[in-house]
Amino acid sequence: MATGYVRPARPGDAGEIARIQLATWRVAYRRILPRHVLDNLDEQWLARRWSAAVQEPPSDAHRVLVAVEQAEQSYLVGFAASGPADAEALAPGEPADALSDGVAAVTDLLVEPRWGRRGHGSRLLAAMVEHWRTDGFTRAVAWAFDGDEATRKFLTATGWEPDGAGRALDVEDMLVPQVRLHVAVPTEPVAQG
């Protein structure tokens, strides 16, 4: 019987995180982002970015977590990254103080599609919530592509809702709309069932 769990990312995980990101984007975003953009993403460049995020986070509240599927062998199957909300979490034209110090921002929450529907996303999200609660965050935000129904459905099913903010990313002269979702961080530990 397979089991899954979440743990903090380690320096040696960076390459596997990059592989998961690339594989997931190429499947999940193939109808959202231009194909040549997805085809030209450099896995080694992504791995260097993840290595820096894991080994040299900007603060103690910046975290990268990985989901592990454990059967006869263990496999990294997903990851999540978050930290205090910064300018990247703001909507265009939103004042710098629109998101208070008590707001966490999800920058990534991905589970490789072949490992989907096994609880890994829920475990990653629950682990992030526990870290946010411990760090004193009262709210969290996340941007999702408007056309990414799977992510939006997953987040709204766990209590997230759009906060009215939107933006469009310029990807190779193509504007790709995103919506921002938010959720209150519970003050008590999250019960796992």
Compact summary:
With 193 residues, the protein is of the alpha+beta class. It has helices spanning 14-28, 35-39, 43-55, 120-135, 149-157, and strands at residues 3-8, 63-70, 74-84, 103-111, 139-145, 161-171, 174-184. It starts with a strand and ends in a 9-residue tail after the last strand.
Features:
single chain; Bact_Acetyltransf; alpha+beta; 7-stranded mixed sheet; Aminopeptidase; acyltransferase; 7 strands; 193 residues; globular; Acetyltransferase (GNAT) family protein
Question: Looking at CATH, which topology would you report?
Answer: Aminopeptidase
How many domains would you count in the coordinates? Answer: 1
Name the CATH superfamily assignment.
Gcn5-related N-acetyltransferase (GNAT)
The general outline is globular
Structural class estimated from helices and strands: alpha+beta
Overall pLDDT metric: 91
Give me the oligomer status.
single chain
Please identify the top-level CATH class. Answer: Alpha Beta
What percent of residues are in strands?
A: 25-35%
- Order the strands across the largest sheet as they lie in space: 1-2-3-4-5-7-6
Helix content: 25-40%
Any idea what the CATH architecture is? 3-Layer(aba) Sandwich
Please work out how many helical segments DSSP would assign.
5
Describe the structure.
A seven-stranded mixed sheet has the order 1-2-3-4-5-7-6, with helices on both faces. It has helices at residues 14-28, 35-39, 43-55, 120-135, 149-157, and strands spanning 3-8, 63-70, 74-84, 103-111, 139-145, 161-171, 174-184. Helix 1 packs across helix 3. It is α+β, with helices and mostly antiparallel strands. It has one domain (3-140): Aminopeptidase (3-Layer(aba) Sandwich). It contains five helices and seven strands. It is 30% helix and 33% strand.
